[in-house]
Each structure stands twice: as structure tokens, then as C-alpha cells.
Amino acid sequence: MGEKKCRRKAAHTAQGSTLRQAFQAGLEGLRLESGLSRRKFAEHLGIPRSSYFHLMTTAANPSLDYIELIAERAGIDPLRLLRRSANTAGDRRPEVREDRPAR
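^ Transcriptional regulator, sequence as received from the core. Prediction below:
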């Protein structure tokens, strides 16, 4: 029974990690769209700067209520924070400039 419980926990952790990464990418993408610094964006959301930085770490585990609060303050659908899209920071690819000399 202990092994079964351990497998469930491992699956939950892996799934949580994916959701956490999607949330972080969505939140950072929203910040980039706003053009605000991290500090100003946290102020805009009405959360402490330290809370914003914590949300962007792997240790963050925001509740659904907290995600809804952030979405409400940002004026967006909460699901947008959990969906990865081309506009999110996690999916952006660096631009390749051909005019720069190769190293």
C-alpha cells in the first residue's frame, strides 16, 4: 500500500509542476504585455513584491482562490493564467539577428 501511495504522490507532484510552470508562464506573459517592471506589476495586482517573486519560484503553490484573485485584479479570465500560449514568457523564443557577428 505504501508503494501505491508513493506513486500517486509522484504523479501529483509532476502534474503540479506542469500547472505551476503554466501559471508562472501565464503570469510572466501578462506582466510582459503590461510593460511593467516586476515591482510595478506586483503593485498593480495589489500583492507584495516578495509574494510576486515567490510565485515565480519552484516552491510556489498558489491556491485556486489566489489565482482567481490575481486574475480578477488583472481583469482577465483565471484560465488564461493556466494556459500556455505564444504570448507567454515560457514559450517565447529569442530573436535571432543576422546582423550580429558570430562568436
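The chain has four helices and no strands.
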